[in-house]
Design a protein that fits this description.
This protein is of the alpha+beta class. Helix content is about 55%, strand content about 15%.
């Protein structure tokens, strides 16, 4: 179910991203099409302007040297089209004709003269246009770029054509000559030219083979124009990402709850087993006391009372460890920090623990070489810290060798003391070293019935050392033992 939901959310986000990419691509293609059309119209306008320039120039020259044509050539005449039927008129031949009828009669000589007149005008205009076209082809490239494509006119044309195609946005442009160098450009063109793909080009005067003038246009706000297309999609993407984040958080919380549930079950199982053993021993000893033979035997009576005493002490110790962890989050409020001689406390704990180590045929030594052992700690909790580390050393001893424990102190500098608890036990795997200070965490070996615990000891040690303002780290190698190094600030 979780995988299906994750795949669904990822698929939804993927589809939205793909949709946005397609929209941006379509918007960009449409933008390119409109710009290309606009620049083509700009080039057409400039061509018309150049044609008009040469036409006006030719007309000016023609008017200055215009003469009447001889006979057989075109001779402009004035024609009075408001003639009455009874009036005579003058045609191109100069003859006077009279109408013989009282009504209007068609004059074929007049129609012929009018045809000659229109033909002459046509030939004149044709010759005029041919001469203009010839001048454009021969002399257009002789004009400078500034004359052929004036910057102010080019700007006006670009703005008009873009507006006509619905692109009212700022632009910068440049005109490049045949040597691929900029003839002129607007002030912001070079600053806006960040990517060659953002340049839109149009050849000016493409019908003139000798002209290699190119108009380049860039749009500084093009990205804003394209992003405006997807603004309405941003809330949808934001909500999808938020939904995915909530989904991930929910999964993490579920996994944590599952882990806590497993830890809780493991804790209850271990605690039940830890309490069951001493209770069974006490119950057995109590049953022995009910036996009259035991009561009459001082040796058996002493043995039963010793069992009850030891198991009660063991049970009290386990209860104390659970109570310590119940105070785990509020210990800072109940601690009584005071000036404590660390060497003295450690020496006392080592002497108390020596009997237990010797019971397994091992030895424990104390090498207390600190020049300044005074620290600011809670004495009870500090004692429990050292005791827990020694207890772990015995729990995780190797069966094939005698346990050897060593506790040493020294001053690495003038403001700290270092306490090292070292053993030759089974060691800890590297992966477990990262987690041994976590609450309820126990290494795999600790789940065996011959090694009991709640996974609270090292978590408690780490918590106390942190509250004392110090640090603790572990070094270990499987099969060779472990070393716990505590560093505490000296009392000042």
């Amino acid at each position: 179910m979780t995988i299906a939901m994750a795949v669904t959310l990822l698929g939804l986000l993927f589809m939205q991203i793909m949709y946005i990419e397609k929209m941006v691509k379509m918007r960009n293609d449409h933008f390119k099409e409109l710009v290309t059309l606009s620049l083509y119209n700009v080039a057409s306008n400039l061509e018309r302007d150049e044609t008009k320039y040469f036409l006006d120039k030719h007309l000016d020259n023609s008017q200055s040297r215009m003469m009447p044509y001889n006979s057989g050539k075109f001779n402009p005449v004035e024609i009075d089209l408001n003639l009455n039927p009874s009036q005579s008129f003058t045609a191109g031949t100069g003859n006077n004709l009279s109408s013989k009828n009282s009504g209007f009669a068609p004059n074929f000589n007049y129609d012929k003269s009018r045809q000659e007149l229109l033909k002459g005008e046509y030939l004149y205009q044709k010759a005029l246009l041919n001469e203009v076209i010839l001048n454009i082809l021969e002399h257009a490239s002789d004009r400078s770029i500034a004359e052929r494509a004036d910057s102010s006119i080019v700007r006006i044309y670009i703005a008009q054509e873009l507006r006509r195609n619905g692109l009212e946005m700022p632009f910068e442009f440049a005109v490049v000559n045949r040597s691929a160098t900029i003839a002129y450009c607007t002030s912001g063109y070079e600053q806006s030219l960040k990517n060659e793909d953002d340049v839109y080009s149009q050849i000016l005067f493409p019908n003139n083979k000798d002209s290699n003038i190119t108009l380049n246009v860039v749009f500084p706000t093009k990205s804003d124009y394209l992003s405006s297309t997807i603004k309405f999609m941003l809330p949808s993407i934001a909500f999808t990402i938020l939904l995915m984040a909530l989904f991930v958080i929910t999964i993490i919380m579920i996994l944590r709850q599952k882990k806590l549930s497993e830890i809780k079950n493991d804790f209850i199982n271990n605690m039940t087993h830890e309490f069951k053993t001493p209770i069974s021993s006490i119950s057995l000893a109590a049953q022995m006391l009910d036996d009259e033979a035991v009561v009459k035997s001082p040796m058996l009576l002493k043995q039963a009372s010793t069992v009850i005493k030891d198991e009660t002490k063991r049970l009290r110790f386990q209860v104390e460890k659970v109570l310590q962890m119940s105070m785990f989050d509020r210990t800072s409020a109940t601690m009584k920090l005071q000036e404590v001689d660390a060497d003295s406390v450690i020496y006392s704990v080592v002497n108390t623990y020596k009997l237990k180590v010797e019971k397994f045929g091992g030895t424990i030594t104390a090498d207390l070489n600190s020049d300044d052992p005074i620290v600011n700690v809670d004495e009870m909790h500090f004692t429990n810290v050292i005791f827990n580390l020694l207890d772990n050393a015995i729990k995780y001893r190797r069966e094939d060798v005698e346990p050897k424990l060593m506790v040493s102190t020294r001053n690495p500098d003038d403001s700290h003391i270092t306490i090292v608890v070292e053993d030759n036990g089974i060691g800890i795997k590297r992966d477990d070293l990262k987690k041994i200070f976590e609450k309820f965490y126990r290494v795999s070996t600790g789940n065996r019935h011959d090694v009991k615990g709640f996974g609270l000891g090292l978590a408690y040690v780490h918590k106390m050392i942190t509250l004392f303002g110090g640090t603790i780290k572990a070094e270990s190698e499987v099969g060779k033992g472990s070393k716990f190094i505590i560093t505490l600030p000296l009392y000042k």
